[in-house]
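User: What would this chain look like folded?
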Amino acid sequence: AFTNCSALESIKVNGTVSLIEPYAFSGCSALSMLDMQYESIVVGRNAFSGCKHIHSLVDLTKITRFGEFAFADTDITNLTLGENVQFVGKSAFAGCSDIDEVVIPFVGCMPHSTQPELGHFGAIFGTEERDNFNVQRIENGQDIVTYSIPSNIRHVTVLSDSMNEGCFDGCNFLSELYLPNIVDFNKACFNGCVSLRYIYLG
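Assistant: Here's the prediction, encoded as structure tokens.
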């Protein structure tokens, strides 16, 4: 709808809106005021990708579904998702180099995923190789998958009571993990987490 409207500075969304369409505000690089009055909302693919100045404008906790690349290449710093989120698309936060705080209800794109690639921590950050990003490298037989993780991330809080298989496999940059509700670990959750110093349970 407003893709690449580079002069657009302000958006107000009232409570009757339940969906931000794919690419709705993609490339609106001057967007610096975003007033979204909603209780829950779905954000489509690439809806805000390339919006460089929205780090303090969006309440991610009220978004229930994130499309792929929904907030890619934005300056979001605090990645805190609400407990009601149902799905986070692949690469939803790709290229978000300023993220330094992560609080998520589950690891990966969805809880209790039966598809390993949707259960990895890096799935929401994408596989595109980027300079000055950390790498989550996962080897599965002859298959190797690498994800580009924002380099400021050291501490992660996961609110789920269980962990997807191999979710943090290869996260050699992670130093602290907070798991206040955990009751079940699946196999290979922390393979290769050589920098992990502290895990806080309960």
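The radius of gyration is 17 Å. If you want, I can go into more detail on any region.
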